[in-house]
């Protein structure tokens, strides 16, 4: 049962999140960092792992709703005429094919290759079709799909007078002859009425494109007012829109009709006053639909637009000898229609990935309404007269090109940000509960999944530091957030250490860029280094302890046995021992030196390090010190603590290490047992539940069938009896196991304590050993040697770290860097030191 609930929540949350991530444009940008969303993401990641274990088939697509590819529908409507060219235009019985036969042009002679017969197969030939039938065939589906979120485009194409406007707008004075436009508006409002579960808004706009200029056919409305700046076509991630075009909210059919008539009137007026020829302009009436569920929890809503396009006459005006304005119009129309044709050809060609939409205003304005994700329909209007046959042919060719275009209608889903946040918050609360259940089932104590505060982050930082120092064996995994923070703190600590190393180096040395030849030659001139970058007087290029990192080091110089290394250390350690070897800071410095000690070819060492003579307040250079030259070269640093720790564990600390390991393995074994017992308890609990259920079933069956009593005693059948026995037995088992678990937990706590103690001892003893081995003056070392006056490990800490300096001075430094218990312990240690001094 738990699994089912969890899967459901998980998947629904995924789909919510998926939706957010799929959102387009501005919204995605704004909401991606929403705290609720981020919190949900965290919880999802926490749950994801366990979900993946449970449901293997989790790689289904939940987020996208892709439509399948669909061909553009192309229809032919023939304008009725008394003079119909029967011998030239023939329809086949399928109602789809139209055959054209052209008589041979006698002027071309008897033998010519002129083609005379064509056949065009379209989706339907509308001959003598009523406005009603045309609407049903052409537009009804497109409009009803628009309410489900699909964009739609219906275009009328054809020569002037062929019936485009009649098809699109119809006769405005006659209701029966109304065209696609008013009928579409009627259908939209009718569907809204039929869908009380949704709040649907309708807006309309009416655009005219004339000679490559944009006109708002609804700008005459009193509340719109004339636009100051010319309209422009703007593209954004949501699609294409016309900046400056008025869009009108219409709450009822009648309002929508008024707007349509207003636009139609403006079209006619413009043709008189501005001397425009209305058949030379393209008109686009757009209905914008937005449908939201009235259920508040549903944050999804769909939008769509229906473009109803009445194109300019397609006749080849250029052929007739037109002049002036007419010629200009002709050029524009021809251009825009041929650009439309080019775009259509490109859309129909699967290999083309660039569609030339921006060549003219018409295709640019229709960019997201041609092809793409729309339901698209073309009505080609033709004139059935013999004189128009050439134009008819050209229109039919356009129609068959259009038929090659495929689109992929897709629902335009959008998300209501406010509703979505509310839903996410609910989901978040559920997920938290879910995690709490998971944790308790997995026998984990209550884990907090909230973002971390500064104190928690500081604690992790300290854990990481202790881990790096070696005082913390492992960092327990709690949750994803904590793991991420641990890594983050690793980065923080690393970069701090890098900076510290660099600043320490800068304090001590002058760093010269190896590529800075001027600086190098200056140093060479000053006689500090020779041509190879070796320090003058340096015997073989080694010896960082002498203060120089040379350009090159001879191979084979580096490897030295650890023992020898340790022996060589004591003297230099004495000089370096300005601060406690226990402190992290000191560790950093030693690491940095190790890094700088040249170990390979020239190219590996980037900076040349020269000890600054002026600022150096330490020793003179090696060449100036004959005493130093007599000694074998020594490394200036003790071995790294982790390396030394391994040695320690094998040598002096072997016994305590063995006990530590033993305790740890006992602890692990107990933990494993506790987890197994928990699992058993859970299993018994499940079985108890199941048995109880079965028993209840038996009981209700018995009650239904009528109970049988004998001398006041209830008689039950064997099955029920066995179930009761089983339940009793299970309960007993449960109690026993539970008691075991309690005992185990107590044992685990005790063992944990032991392990902690051992770890502490191991580390303390290691520190003492480390200091004795690498930081103890020679005289003291002699004393520590077998037969000496002091036993190893018994040397007081203060003595070890004082290294001949003023004890009190050293100790106050130690207080700042190493005393683990903080300021409260100062007086305690002060007293101890005094006592030890007295003894010594
Ligand atoms: P276009 O817009 O293509 O230039 P119109 O729609 O203005 O053509 O049509 C020209 C004339 O033909 C108009 O008077 C119109 O009423 C008439 N007409 C066109 N198609 C039909 C039709 N199918 N039935 C009746 N009349 C039509
Ligand atoms: Mg017209």
TrEMBL record:
What Gene Ontology cellular component terms go with this record? microtubule
Write out the biased-composition intervals (Polar residues). Answer: 589-600
What are the binding positions for ATP in this chain? 158-165
Superkingdom, according to UniProt? Answer: Eukaryota
This protein's assembly is summarised as: Interacts with HYDIN.
Under InterPro entries, the record lists:
KIF6/9_C, Kinesin-like_fam, Kinesin_motor_CS, Kinesin_motor_dom, Kinesin_motor_dom_sf, P-loop_NTPase
Skewed-composition ranges (Basic and acidic residues): 601-616
In which family does this protein belong, per the annotation? Belongs to the TRAFAC class myosin-kinesin ATPase superfamily. Kinesin family.
Q: What does this protein do?
A: Essential for normal male fertility and for progressive motility of spermatozoa.
Q: Which residues form a coiled coil?
A: 414-441, 667-694
Return one Gene Ontology term, BP aspect. microtubule-based movement
- Provide the alphabetized UniProt keywords: ATP-binding, Cell projection, Cilium, Coiled coil, Cytoplasm, Cytoskeleton, Flagellum, Microtubule, Motor protein, Nucleotide-binding, Phosphoprotein
- Per the record, a Pfam family? KIF9
Signal peptide per UniProt: none
Subcellular location(s) of the protein: Cytoplasm, Cytoskeleton, Flagellum axoneme
Query: What positions does the domain Kinesin motor occupy?
Result: 71-405
- What name does UniProt use for this protein? Kinesin-like protein
Q: Which organism is it from?
A: Bos mutus grunniens
User: In terms of one coarse class, where is the protein primarily found?
Assistant: cytoplasm
* Region annotation Disordered: where it falls in the sequence: 544-644
**MF (Gene Ontology):** ATP binding; microtubule binding; microtubule motor activity
């Amino acid at each position: 049962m738990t699994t089912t609930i969890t899967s459901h929540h998980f998947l629904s949350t995924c789909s919510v999140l998926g939706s957010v991530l799929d959102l387009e444009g501005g919204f995605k940008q704004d909401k991606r960092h929403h705290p609720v969303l981020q919190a949900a993401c965290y919880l999802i990641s926490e749950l994801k792992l366990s979900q993946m274990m449970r449901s293997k088939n989790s790689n289904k697509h939940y987020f996208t709703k892709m439509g399948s590819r669909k061909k553009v529908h192309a229809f032919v409507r023939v304008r009725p005429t008394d003079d119909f060219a029967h011998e030239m235009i023939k329809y086949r019985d399928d109602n789809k094919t139209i055959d054209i036969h052209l008589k041979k042009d006698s002027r071309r002679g008897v033998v010519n290759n002129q083609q005379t017969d064509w056949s065009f197969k379209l989706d339907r030939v509308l001959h003598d079709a009523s406005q009603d039938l045309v609407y049903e065939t052409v537009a009804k589906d497109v409009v009803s799909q628009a309410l489900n979120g699909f964009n739609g485009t219906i275009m009328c194409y054809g020569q002037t007078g062929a019936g485009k406007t009649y098809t699109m707008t119809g006769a405005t004075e006659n209701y029966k002859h109304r065209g696609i436009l008013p009928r579409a508006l009627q259908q939209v409002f009718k569907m809204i009425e039929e869908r009380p579960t949704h709040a649907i808004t309708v807006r309309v706009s009416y655009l005219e494109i004339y000679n490559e200029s944009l006109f708002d056919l609804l700008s005459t409305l009193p509340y719109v007012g004339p636009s100051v700046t010319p309209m422009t076509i703007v593209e954004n991630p949501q699609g294409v829109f016309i900046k400056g075009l008025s869009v009108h909210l219409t709450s009822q059919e009648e309002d929508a009709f008024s707007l349509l008539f207003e636009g139609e009137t403006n079209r006619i007026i413009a043709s008189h006053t501005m001397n425009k020829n209305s058949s030379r302009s393209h008109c686009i009436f757009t209905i914008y639909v937005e449908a939201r569920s009235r259920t508040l929890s549903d944050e999804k809503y769909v939008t769509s637009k229906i473009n109803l396009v009445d194109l300019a006459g397609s006749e080849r005006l250029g052929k007739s000898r037109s002049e002036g304005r007419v010629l200009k119009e002709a050029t524009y129309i021809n251009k825009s229609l041929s650009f439309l044709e080019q775009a259509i050809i490109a859309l129909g060609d699967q290999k083309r990935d660039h569609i030339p939409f921006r060549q003219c205003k018409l295709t640019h304005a229709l960019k997201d309404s041609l092809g793409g994700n729309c339901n698209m329909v073309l009505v080609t209007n033709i004139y059935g007269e013999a004189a128009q046959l050439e134009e008819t042919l050209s229109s039919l060719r356009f129609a068959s090109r259009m038929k090659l275009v495929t689109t992929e209608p897709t629902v335009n889903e959008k998300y209501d940000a406010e509703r979505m946040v509310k839903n996410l918050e609910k989901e978040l609360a559920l997920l938290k509960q879910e995690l709490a259940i998971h944790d308790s089932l997995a026998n984990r104590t209550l884990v907090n999944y909230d973002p971390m505060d500064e104190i928690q982050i500081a604690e992790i930082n300290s854990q990481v530091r202790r881990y790096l120092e070696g005082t913390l064996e492992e960092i327990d995994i709690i949750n994803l957030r904590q793991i991420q923070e641990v890594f983050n703190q690793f980065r923080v600590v690393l970069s701090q250490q890098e900076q510290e190393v660099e600043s320490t180096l800068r304090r001590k040395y002058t760093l010269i860029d190896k590529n800075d030849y001027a600086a190098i030659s200056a140093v060479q001139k000053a006689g500090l280094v020779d041509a190879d970058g070796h320090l003058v007087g340096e015997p073989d290029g080694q010896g960082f302890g002498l203060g120089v990192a040379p350009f090159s080091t001879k191979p084979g110089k580096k490897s030295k046995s650890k023992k020898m290394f340790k022996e060589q250390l004591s003297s230099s350690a004495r000089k370096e021992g300005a601060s406690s070897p226990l402190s992290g800071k000191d560790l950093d410095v030693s690491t940095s030196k190790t890094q700088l000690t040249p170990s390979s070819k020239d190219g590996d060492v980037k900076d040349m390090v020269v000890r600054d003579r002026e600022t150096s307040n330490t020793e003179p250079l090696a060449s100036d010190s004959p005493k130093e030259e007599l000694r074998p070269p020594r490394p200036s640093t003790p071995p790294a603590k982790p390396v030394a720790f391994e040695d320690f564990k094998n040598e002096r600390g072997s016994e305590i290490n063995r006990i530590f390991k033993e305790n740890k393995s006992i602890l692990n074994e107990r933990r494993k047992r506790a987890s197994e017992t928990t699992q058993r308890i859970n299993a018994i609990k499940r079985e108890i539940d199941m048995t109880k259920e079965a028993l209840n079933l038996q009981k209700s069956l018995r009650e239904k069938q009528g109970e049988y009593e004998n001398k006041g005693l209830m008689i039950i059948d064997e099955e029920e009896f066995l179930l009761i026995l089983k339940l009793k037995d299970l309960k007993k088992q449960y109690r026993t196991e539970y008691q075991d678990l309690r005992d185990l937990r107590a044992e685990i706590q005790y063992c944990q304590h032991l392990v902690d103690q051992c770890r502490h001892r191991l580390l303390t003893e290691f520190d003492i050993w480390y200091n004795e081995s690498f930081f103890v003056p020679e005289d003291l070392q002699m004393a520590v040697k077998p037969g000496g006056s002091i036993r190893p490990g018994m040397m007081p800490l203060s003595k070890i770290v004082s290294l001949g300096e003023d004890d009190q001075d050293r100790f106050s430094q130690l207080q700042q860097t190493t005393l683990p218990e903080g300021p409260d312990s100062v007086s305690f240690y002060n007293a101890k030191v005094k006592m030890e001094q007295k003894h010594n």
